[in-house]
Records
---
Amino acid sequence: MTTPILRIEDVHKSYGNLQVLKGISLTVHPQEVVVLVGPSGSGKSTLLRCINLLSPPTKGRIWLENQDITAPGVNQDRVRQRIGMVFQEFNLFTHLTALGNVMIGLTKVRKMRKNEARDLAMFELERVGLADRAHYYPAQLSGGQKQRVAIARALGMDPHVMLFDEPTSALDPELTGEVLAVMQKLASEGMTMIVVSHEMGFARQVADRVVFMEGGVVVEEGPPQRMFEQAVHERTRTFLRTIEYMRQAP
Amino acid sequence: MEFVQDLLTTFNFIVQGLWVTISVTAVALTTGVVIGIVLAIARVYGHPSLQVAVTVYSVIIRAVPVIVIIFILFFVISRYVNLSPFWAGALALGFASGAYQTEIFRGALQAVQPGQMIAARAIGMSRLQAIQSVVLPQALRLALPAWGNEATLVLKDSTLVFAVGVPEILRRAQQVSARTFEPFLAFGVALLLYLALTLITTQALRWLERRYRLQM
C-alpha cells in the first residue's frame, strides 16, 4: 500500500456559528483522481479551501506528504506552492496576458529568471493547447480558454496535488469539453487530482474514486462503477440518479 | 502697440512663475501619491488599529480647508524645521492631497475583485506579494480617472501657496497688477496660463487612461 499523498483527519470548519464541515476524514493516494460530489452547501468547496489552507480548518489535521500542514508555525505560503488550485470563476490576473499569468508565479514565487520562466510558461501553455494565445489578455479569451490558462498557471508551480473547484460550472456547455479533455490528460500523466464537479461523465471515466458529501460529512465513497450502480446509501443513489437525469434531459 | 508691449512685459514676468507652479504641483502630487498608496494599503489590509488611525487622518484633513493646512504647516512647522516657503507650501499641499488620494486608492483597492487575491495566494504568494504584484497594479489602473481629477485639483490648489509668499503664477500676477495698475491684463494672463496647464494635463491623463485601461 503506497503512502498517502494527502491525509485529511477529522476536519471541521465553522464560520462563526455556521458549521460547514462536521468531521471529514479522507485519504488520497499519489496519482489518484478523486471526484467530490454532493448538493450545494455540502461543504465540498470549503473542504478544498481547507486543504490548501486558504481557509484553514477550525479543528482536525491535514497531512501533505507526511507533513502536518495544519500545525502551528507552518509556512502556509510555501505549502500552497505544492498544491495547485483551479477556480470556478477562473480568477485570471486581468492586467496580465496568458503568458504573464503563468509567468508571474514562476518569477515572483519560484524566483526563476525571466527567460527560464518564459520557456516554462510557454511549455505549460502548450500543454493545455493555448501556446498561440500566449499574448492575449483574459478579456480576449473564451471561458474555456480562460480556464485552461488557469490550469497552466497552476501547473507552472509544479504542484504535487491539483484541486479543481467546479472547473466547468461557469462555462457554456460547448466549452466544457476542452477543459475536461485537459483534465483527463493531466490525470493520464499521473497528476493527483481532487475535483469538485457535477460532470458525471468525467467522474465515470476518469475518477478512481467518487466521494459523496452532504451536510458537511462524507456519506459514502467508492470506485465510480460501484457508486453509480450499486451505492449502499439511499441518499447517494437518489442524488446521483438526479444529477444524471438532469444532465441527460433535453 | 503699447498694449502689446505691456502684454509682453506682463506675460514675461508672470510666466517665470510657471516653473514654480509646476514644481509645487509635482512635489505635492508625488507626496500625495506616496501617502495615498501607503495609507490605502494600511487601511484595507492593515491591523484594525492602523485602519482607525488612517481613517482619523483622512476624515480630519478632508474636513479642513487646504489653505488652513498650509498655514498651519508653514507657521507652526517652520518654527522648528528650517523650511523655505516653497517646501512648506508644497509639502503641506501634498499632505492635504494625501488624504484625498488615500480615499481614491482605498476605493480602487476594494474595487479589485476578491478572487484576484485568492488566486494569488493559491499559487503561493504571500499577502504582501499578492498586494504588490496582483492587486496594486490593477487598483492603480482603476484609480486613474479619479486620480486624474485630483491631479487637476492639486494643480489649481497650487495657487494657495501664494499666501505664504511662494512666487508662483498668481503671486507674480498680483505683483505685476500692483505695479502696473492693469489687473485685467495680469490676471488675464494668469488665467490663460492655468487654462493651458489644465488642458495639457487633462490630455496627458486621457492618454494615460487609454494606454493603461484594464480590459475586464
Note: Residues 167 and 224 of chain A are 19 Å apart (CA to CA).
---
Amino acid sequence: MKDPARLLEASASDFEQQLLRAGASEQPPTAAMQRLAEGLGVSVSTPTASAPGLRLMAANKSTLVVAGIAGLGLALGTVAWLGTQDSAPPGPARGSAAALPAPQSAAENSALPHDRVATADSNAPDSHSLALEVARIDLVRGHLAARRSKPALALLQGYEREFPSGVLRQEAELLTIEAHGQAGDRRRARTLAARFLARNPDSPHNARVRDLLDAMGPDAR
Amino acid sequence: MAPRADAESTPARPDPDRLARAIEADYRFIWRLLRRFGVPEHHAEDAAQQVFLIVAERMSDITPGRERAFAFGTALRHAQTLRRRLGRELPHDQQQLDERGGTHSTPDELVDQKRARELLDQILQQMPQDSRTVFILFELEALSSPEIAALIEVPLGTVASRLRRAREQFRTLVAEAQHKREGR
C-alpha cells in the first residue's frame, strides 16, 4: 500500500500548510538533550538531523514560494540553526550509565495506550505521577551513591520544577542537602539543612539531616 | 518513603550505549510529540526528561528495537497526566478556539510561528485521540504508514482509515477557524 502524499508536500491550502509548517518545524532547545544525557549519566553526540517537517518543506519548493516572506524567514532561520548544529563539536565517548534502581511501581512498568489510562481526581497524585516522582528520586539516589553530585543536582532542580507539591518533596530536599554536601558546597548544604529542620520539626528525615550535618564536619551545625 | 532493603536497592544498570542511542534517536521526536499532545512549551523539556527516565528505568525490559514505541506510549500517558495536573483547559469548541487562537490576524497575517503553532495545537486538541495521533505521526513527523502501524500496534488498514478521517477533521476545523477569522 502506497502512502498518500503528505499535506505539506502537496494538497493542503496555504493556510493549512502554514499551520502544519509551524508545528513540523518546532524543535527542542539545542542543549535540552545534552542536559538529559548528563542527568542520566550518559554521553550523546549532537545529531544534525532537522525536524521532519523541514525536510518536507525543502522537498516542496513551491510551498516556500507560496509562503512568501514568512517561509523565507523560516528557511533562513533553519539554515542558521542547521549551521549551528553542524558546527557543534562531536560528543565525547560514551560514559558509564547512571546507577539505576530497579523499577518501583507496576503502574510504571508499561506504556499503556491513552484510552487505558484511568481518569483520577486532578488534585490527587495519580499512580503515574507518583511513579515518575519515585523514578526521579531513585535516579538521584543512584547518582549520590556513586558520588555524582552534579547530575544529582540537575535532576533535583528538575524535580522542583516538575513536582512543586510532590509527595516526595521532603525526600528531595534531603537529597539536595546531601548533594550540595558532596559537591563541597557546605555552606549551601548547612543553610538548606537548617531551613529543613526549622520547617519540619517532626519530619522522619530529621535524623538523617543531622547525620549529614555531622558528616560535613564540626562547624556544620 | 520507607527505606528499602539492601537487596531491593541494588541498582540495575541499563546498557549506557543503548540508552544513549535511544536518546539520540528519539529525544527530539518525543519532545515534539509532547508539544503536539498539548504539553506547554515551558514544560516540554521536563516532560521529555521524565519519559526518558522511565525508558532508562525499564530499559532491561524493553525489547531491543522497541525503544521508540515504549517512549511513545510513555509520552502519550505523561502528556495526559501533565495536562490534567496543570489544569490546562483545552478548547473543545469553536468559541474557545476563537478566544484562545490569536483572533487578531487574518490567515495572511499568520506569519508569527508561535501563533500559528498555538492555533494548530488547538485544532489538534479538538480531534479525537486516535485520529490526532496518526495525523501527527504522518503529517508532522513524516513517518510512513507501516512505521505508524508498528508504533501504535494497529493494522495498516486502520492507520489508513484513521488518517483519512483525521484529514477530513483537520480540514473542517481549519476551514472553520479560517472562516471565523475572515468574517471579522
Note: Residues 99 and 146 of chain A are 7 Å apart (CA to CA).
---
Amino acid sequence: MFLVPDSVGRFFHRMASPPHFYAFTERLMPWLVVIFVLLTAAGLYGGLYLAPADYQQGDSYRIIYIHVPSAWMSLFIYIVMAVAGAIGLIWRIKLAEIVTISSASIGASFTFIALVTGSLWGKPMWGTWWVWDARLTSELILLFLYLGVIGLYEAIDDKRVASKAVAILALVGVVNIPVIHYSVEWWNTLHQGPTVTKMDKPSIHVTMLIPLLLMALSFNVYYVIALIQRMRVELLQRERNSQWVKTMVLEKKR
Amino acid sequence: MSLSRAFFAIIRRDLVLALRRRSEIANPLFFFILVITLFPLGIGAQPHLLQAIAPGIIWVSALLAAMLSLDGLFRSDFDDGSLEQILLSPYPASILVLAKIIAHWLVTGLPLLIVAPLLAIFLGMPTHSLGILLLTLLLGTPVLSLIGAIGVALTVGLRRGGMILSLLVLPLYVPVLIFASNAVEIAGSGLPVGAQINILISILLMALVLAPWPTAAALKMSIN
C-alpha cells in the first residue's frame, strides 16, 4: 500500500471499516438512484424513440440496448469479483470479501439476461433460438462459472472460509476466461459455423451508439446500487453481534 | 530430508497406497469403458455415425472419468489427518501437492491411455489417428488432474462436495476438450495437427506451473 498517496490510502482504510461504509452508502444511495433513473430514461428515450430503425433488421435490433450492456457487465463483474477476491485474500479486508460474493449473483443475472435477450434477438434474425456460436457458448460457460462461485459459497457453512474459497475460485476462473474464450472461438471457426451467424458488422451510427453507451453507463450504476444493497445486507448479517449494529438498531427504534 | 526426496517419497507413498487398494485404480477405468459402451446403445450402432463422433465420445468420457476419480485425491488424507502433516512440513506446500497430483494421475489417468485404443477401435476410429488420440490423452489427462485438484481442494472439507465439484471443474475443462477432440478428429481425416498439439502442450505447462498454488492455498483454507 506504500505506492498509493496518503489521502487515497486513508480513504480506503476508512471505507474498509464496516460502520463507516454502512453510514456512507446510506447517504450515497439517493444520488445513485437519481443518476440511474436519469441515465436509463435518456438511454431508453434515445434508443427506442430517437434512434432510426435499422435498414436490415427494422425495429427488432433495439433489443441491443439491453443485450449488449448486459453482456459487457457480465464480463466486467467477473473481473471486479476476481480483483476484489485478490484484495480480500492479500489484505484480509472484510469488505472486499463481501464485494466478491455480492457481485456473483448480480453477474450471474446479467449473464442470464444477455443469454435470454440474445436468444430472443436470434429468433427473428437468424431464425433459431440458439446457435453454437463462439460468443454464445463462452457466455454460457461464463454463466456456469458464476453458478459455481455461488454454489461453492452456499455449500460452505463458515462464511469467512467460504469467502476465501470463492476468492480463490474467482481468481482461477479469471485466468481461465481468456483461454476458454479463445478456445471456443477457435473451435467454432474450425467447425465451419452456421453461415447465419456471420452477420457482417456495419459500423454503428452515432444516433444508435450514444444511447447504447448511456445504457451501458446506467447498467454500471445499477450494478453499483445492487452491489451496495447486497453488501449492506450481508454486512448486517455477518456483524449482527457487533456493537455498531446494536447501537444502530437501537437508534433506529427510537 | 531434501525437497526432492520429500517429493518422491509422497509419490511413492501414494502409489503404494493405491496398489494396496486396487479398486481405486479399476473404478475410473470401468466407468470410462461403461460410458463409452452406453453411447452406441443410446444413439444406434451405425458405423459412420459412431466413427464421426468417436473422438468426442472418448474425450467426454475421459473428462467424466477424471472428474469422478478426483474425490480420492485428498479425501483419505484429509480424513486421517496426514494432509495436515503434509501442509505443516517445512517444504513448500505447492510442490508436495504437485507430487500428490502426479501420483493421482499415474493411478487414474495413465490407465485410460491403455484402454483408449481398444475403445477407439470398437467405435470404428481410423487406425492412423490412434497415435494422435494417445498423444492427446497423454497431454490432456494431466491437465484434468491439475485443474481438478483445485476444485477438490476447495470442496474436500464439505460433506457432500460431489455435485458442486462438477460445477466447479467441468467449465474449466472446456479448452482441453476442444483442442484434444479436435486434434483427433482432424488427424482422422489425415490433416496435420501440429497447432492443436502445441496448444495442448502449452496448456499442460501452464497448468503444471500455475495450478499447484491455488490448490495449496485452498487446502490450507479447507483444513482450518
Note: Chain A touches chain B through 27 residues (CB under 8 Å).
---
Amino acid sequence: MPDENPKRDKFLTFISLSFLLCFLWYADNHFSNYTLRILNNIAIFIILAVSYNLINGITGQFSLEPNAFLAVGAYTSAIFTLSPEEKLRSFIIEPMAWPLSEISLSFPASLVVAGVVTAFMALLMAIPVFRVRGDYLAIVTLGFGEVIQVVANNIVSVTNGPLGIKGLAPHTNIWWSWGICIFTVLCVVRLVNSSYGRAMKAVREDETAAMAMGINAFRIKTLAFTFSAFFEGVAGGLLAHLITTISPSLFTFLLTFNLLIIIVVGGLGSTTGAIISAVLITWGGEALRLVEEPISVLGFEYEGIPGMRMVLFSLILIFVMLFARSGLMGRNEFRWAILINWLKRRKTSEAKNQ
Amino acid sequence: MDLSFATQQVIYGLTLGCLYGLLAIGYTMVYGVLRLINFAHGDLLMVSAYVAFFGIIIFSLPWPVAFLGAAIFTAVIGILIDRGAYKPIRKSPRISALITAIGVSFLLENLALVLIGGRPKSFPIPTLFNGSLSIGELKVPVLSLWILSLTLVLLVIVIGIVHKTRIGMAMRALSRDIETVSLMGIDENRVISFTFALGSILAAFGGVMWCMRYPAVEPFMGVIPGLKAFVAAVLGGIGNVTGAAIGGLILGLAEVLIVAIQPDWSGYRDAIAFCIMIVILLTRPRGIMGENLPD
C-alpha cells in the first residue's frame, strides 16, 4: 500500500511545478512561434478537458457543451477587451448596442466576466434539465451549441454577425495560458477530493443510493456543470485572444467531439488521464494532419482525403468505448506515493538481479 | 394575415411536422426500450436519402424500387448499428452507450463526406410528387398530400404493431424491464433489432420525403432534423408513439407559423425547437401525451 505523506507530496508538487515554469520560461525565449502556439493550445485543451471531465467523467452526466461554452466565453471576453474606438471601427454592419459599446475591461477582468457569464448560462440550462432527467442534458447542450451559432450570426449589434470579431489584441501568451491551466487543475483536483467531489462520484455510481444517503443530486449536478462551465468560459477567452479573430463558424461541434475523444482516451473520471490525453491528442492531432495531405508511400501516390481524420477519430472513439473502456488511466489518479513505490520496487528488483 | 395565407402556412407546417414526426417515432421507440438517445438516428435520414439518390441517378431504378431499397438498406444499417455498437455495451453504464452513439453518428457523417463528398446533390423528384393542386386561392403541393397520408398510414401501422402483435407486446414489455423479459423466454436482442429496424424504416421514408421537400442531399443533412425530432419526442412524451407524431406536428407548425407571423425571426428558426425543449422541461416534463415509461 503506498504511504501518503502530505508534506512530502506538497513539496514534490511544488518542485515539479517549478520545473514546469522553468521549462515554460525556456520555451518562451527559445522556441519558434509555431511551437509556442501548440504549447498554448495544449494549455487551453487541458483546461477544457479537465473541466469537461468533471461533468462527464466524475459526475457521470453526459453533456455536449464545450463548443457552446467556448463560444460564449470567447465572445464575452472579446467584447469586453476591445476599446470603444475599435468597436466603432469593426462593427460595420450595425454599430454595437449601447452599454456594451462604451465598456472596456482589462484582459484578466474580461476572462473573469467570460467565466461568470458562461457559468450563468450553464445554470440556466442545468435547472430545467437536472430537475427532470439527466439524460436530456446531452440533447439540450447539443441544441445549445447549434443555437449559440445561430444567435451569434443574428444579433449583429453584439457579435458583429457572421463577420465575427477581428483584430483582438494577442493577450494570451504562454504565462497566461499555462498559469490559468495550472490554477484550473488545482481547483478541480481540490474540488474532486472534497466532500462535494465524493458526492459527485456517488451520484455517478448510483443516483438513487446517493440520494438515499442525503445527497442533493440536483444541487451536486448543477454545481459540477456550472463549475466546469466557468473554466470553459475562461478557456474561451484565452482562445479568443490567442487566435485574435473569432467568428460563429469557429465553434462547431467538432471541438466538442475532439474533447470527448480526449477524456475518453484518458479514461472517463480521471483528471490525470484528461491531462495526459489532452497533451497527446493536441500534439497528435497536428501530426495526423498528414492523413489529409497528399503523400507518396513506396511509389504509391496517396491523395489526401478531407474528412479522413474525423473518420479515424470516430473509429478510435467507438473502439475505445467498446474494447478499452477504461482508457489510459481508468479512474486512477496520479499520486506521488505510487510513483515513489514504483521506483523503490524497481530498485529492489534491480538489486536482486545483480 | 388573411385566411388563405394562414391555411397555406398551416399546410407547410403540417408537412414539416410529419417529417419530424416520422423521425421522432424512431427516437421514442429506441429510448423507450433501451433508455438510449440514439444520436445516429438523424443520420439515417441522410443514409436513406443517399441510397435513394444513387438508386435513381446511377442505377436508374424506377423510384418505387429505389425508395423501397432505401428503406431496406437503412433498416439493415439500423440493425447493424445496434448489433455492432450498442449491443456489446448494454450492461455497462449508460454514459458509454451515449458516447458510442455520438461516435457512430460522427462516423456515418464523415464516412459519407469521405466516400461521396461534401457538395450538396440535388435530389431528382419523380413527376408523381411534383406540382400542386389549386383549391381557390390555396396551392397545395402534391408532395404535402403524399407526406401527410404516408405519415398517417405509417403511424397506424406502427401503432398496430406496437399494440396488437406479439412482437409489439414484447417491445412494450422490454420497456418495463429487460432482465425479467429475457427470463420469460423472449429473445431480447431480436426484439431490440426489430425496434431499430422499424425506427430506421420510418427514418428512411422520412429521409426520402425530406429531400423531395428540401432537395439537397449532403452528409450533415440529418443533424438538425435529428435534434429537432428528439425534441418532438420529448414534447409528445418520450416512449409514446402517438405522442412523438403529435410532438412532431406541433414543432413543425410552430416553426413555420412563428416565422410566417414574424419574418424578422427567420434567422432564429433553428432556435425555436431548443426554446420549446426548455419550456417543456420546465412546465410539463412528461410531455403532452404523457410518458410511457416506468421509472
Note: The two ends of chain A are 26 Å apart (CA to CA).
